[in-house]
Amino acid sequence: MHPLTMMAVGLYGQTLPPQNGAPIRLVVPWKYGFKSIKSIVRIKLTDKQPPTTWNRLAANEYGFYANVNPNVSHPRWSQSSERRITTGGLLSRNRIDTQMFNGYDEVASMYTNMDLSRFY
Amino acid sequence: MRLLNKPVRFSSLTHHTLKALIHLCAIGYLVFLFYAGITDNLGPDPVDTLLNETGIWAIHLLFITLLLSPLAKLLPSPEPIQFRRMIGVYVFVYACAHLATYILFELQLDMALVASEIVSRPYIIVGMLAFILLLLLTATSFRRVRKSMGKRWQQLHNSIYVIMGLALLHFSWSQKTFWQEPVFYWLFAVVILQGRLRGIMVQAYTRWQRNRAKV
Question: What residues of B are in contact with residue A88 (Cβ under 8 Å)?
């Protein structure tokens, strides 16, 4: 496991609440949020790529790797920039450019020689 | 089938009160949404809530306009038709609010992004087509224009059925998968249109026959 991958049991200094995935969840900061699965009950090690929920539901929208990548568009929206969920209501200007691997360049070495627009 | 023996008529007071109530609800809800959004009282993601509410209520209002003529026949009463134009115009107003929310608050006036998104996302192209048709219907909704257009007015305004199809396609396509909430909207659309479908098909058939005769 890459050291940036976390198994979390808490949130904001408190015990992880059920709606955030108690008792234990995964946090993978350089991938889109749906890869950080909640409420882990079992871990199985396999030698093949396992089927994953979102990928099975809508393969064209949810790739297996799901690395944050401004150069690969989601079918329904561009992923070159993102609107952050902040406070301040409608008028807050919170759209920023999206960074490759969400800005965590230290994970790039795991994907060298891989066509990230194909394996999205 | 008729529910009542005598056609229902509204007094002028009832008519005006109802119209005022419709204006109040339709404008009131929009004002509430934008006010709550600006003051950050519209949930964790006000842009998302605003997009959903304006879009879904444009569709709800569209359904209401299409239910008015069957209602007029069912009662029977000429009154429901008196409210069709105003509710139809509100469909356009809600569609405007929906598009404005997308450009102003979702894409935050990044016009290069607006242009590229409008041309490259099929569900947005479909939504824009519905919007342009609604704009045409609204622009020709004035009594004076209606009179001067003659028969062509009805032909143009029959595109409301196309708009409904486009709007529902836009709704379905904006979801992760097809089997979600919009499915119920498609079913409802089929139910309210099934009475009209026969008429539309007969009309199309006679027109086709006539055209064939000409050739």
Answer: 40
Q: How many residues does chain A have?
A: 120
Render pLDDT for A42-85 as a digit per residue (tens, 0 to 9).
999 999 999 988 888 888 888 999 999 999 999 999 999 999 99
Residue A114 to chain B, least CA–CA distance (Å) = 26
CA closest to B45 among chain A residues: A85
State ipTM.
Answer: 0.84
Residues on chain B bordering chain A, Cβ-to-Cβ distance under 8 angstroms:
34, 37-42, 44-47, 50, 105-108, 110, 113, 116-117, 120-121, 123, 173-174, 176-177
Residues in contact with B88: Cβ distance below 8 Å, sequence separation at least 6, in sequence order: B61, B65, B137, B138, B141, B160
Q: Cβ separation of A90 and B105 shorter than 8 Å?
A: yes
Q: How many CB atoms lie within 10 A of CB B107?
A: 21
Nearest to residue A30, comparing CAs of A5, A55, A60? A5
Within 10 A of B40 (CB to CB), how many other CB atoms are there? 16
pLDDT tens, B33-79? 999 999 999 999 999 999 999 999 999 999 999 999 999 998 899 99
The helix (H) or strand (E) run that includes residue B198 is helix B182-214
Separation of alpha carbons B18 and B15, rounded Å: 5
Residues B108, A57: C-beta atoms closer than 8 Å: no
